[in-house]
Design brief:
The chain has about 260 residues and is mainly alpha-helical. The protein is built from 11 helices and 4 strands, in the order H-H-H-H-E-E-H-E-E-H-H-H-H-H-H. It has helices at about 15-30, 35-45, 50-65, 70-85, 100-120, 130-160, 165-175, 185-200, 205-220, 225-240, 255-260, and strands spanning about 90, 95, 125, 130. The strands form 2 sheets. A two-stranded antiparallel ribbon has the order 1-2. A hairpin with a 2-residue loop joins strand 3 (about 125) and strand 4 (about 130). Helix 4 (about 70-85) packs across helix 6 (about 130-160) and helix 9 packs antiparallel against helix 10. The longest helix has 27 residues, at about 130-160. It is globular and about 55 Å long. Keywords: Initiation factor, Protein biosynthesis. InterPro entries: ARM-type_fold (IPR016024), MIF4G-like_typ-3 (IPR003890). Belongs to the eukaryotic initiation factor 4G family.
Length: about 260
């Protein structure tokens, strides 16, 4: 992955651009699989005509997908259609494409997740003690965002918006050091493998996949991990052994009223 590009920031854009981003947010707040085509047309009609607008739109799509993971497939489809519909832009003499900005945003969110995990473990900030309750709130927030990001990355790969090489980079990073496994990373790994395992488990990648599952098997027997995570890892192993066929049906996207009711 490449270094993250400059991104859309409120306060550093014109009033016109700010108003456009608010309109995008309003449209995305209503997006469901049922009204997809109608709302996609509304975003197109707003006119994404500059790199600054593109950065803002992608940033908002990421925020929505991460915080509403049941709609990840819908937001991934939204990205596919935008990438086809939008032209290339030029900024500082360089080409700016939808896929390039999307890739950089994936990397940015991945790094942010790691940073927020580290910050959630701190016992003080600027010399001021952080209570266990405050640390737990930070930890839960960081975990939710990281898992949402991983799921969205997986859905983007399924839509051919990200490459298989990037998926292997994510898996390698999440596996980390066996001697000191990171619980949040293990949970994210299970989520990612469940999402994309059937697509990356092919003959050309067999050596890589076999190596991953040797580590996964070791981790599933690691007494230092909570039983919840060990069972999650065993579920991934079972899934592969079952040719990546879920033994029970996975729920699809809910209607927006159901999301708000369950929140």
């Amino acid at each position: 992955m490449h270094k993250a590009e400059k991104r859309y920031e409120i306060g550093k854009v014109s009033d016109e651009e700010d108003a456009k981003q608010r309109q995008v947010k309003g449209i995305l707040n209503k997006l469901t699989p049922q009204n997809f085509e109608k709302l996609f047309a509304q975003v197109q009609d707003l006119g994404i005509e500059t790199a600054a607008t593109l950065y803002g739109v992608i940033s908002q799509i990421f925020d929505k997908a991460i915080m509403e993971p049941t709609f990840c497939e819908t937001y991934a489809r939204f990205c596919v259609q935008l990438s086809v519909a939008l032209p290339e832009f030029t900024e500082d003499g360089e080409k700016v494409t939808f896929k390039r900005v999307l890739l950089n945003k994936c990397q940015e969110e991945f790094e942010r997740g790691k940073r927020e995990e580290e910050e959630a473990g701190k016992t003080e900030e600027d010399g001021i003690a952080i209570t266990p309750e405050e640390r737990e709130i930070k930890r839960v927030k960081a975990r939710r965002r990281m898992l949402g990001n991983i799921r969205f990355i997986g859905e983007l790969y399924k839509e051919s918006m990200l490459t298989e090489r990037i998926m292997h980079q994510c898996i390698t990073s999440l596996l980390g050091e066996y001697q000191s496994p990171d619980e949040e990373n293990i949970e994210a790994l299970c989520k990612l493998m469940t999402t994309i395992g059937s697509l990356i488990d092919h003959s050309k990648a067999k050596a890589h996949i076999d190596a991953y599952f040797e580590r996964i098997l070791d981790l599933s027997n690691n007494p230092k991990l909570p039983s919840r995570l060990r069972f999650g890892l065993k579920d991934v192993i079972d899934l592969r052994n079952n040719d990546w066929q879920q033994r029970r049906k996975v729920e699809g996207p809910k209607k927006i009223e159901e999301v708000h009711r369950d929140a």
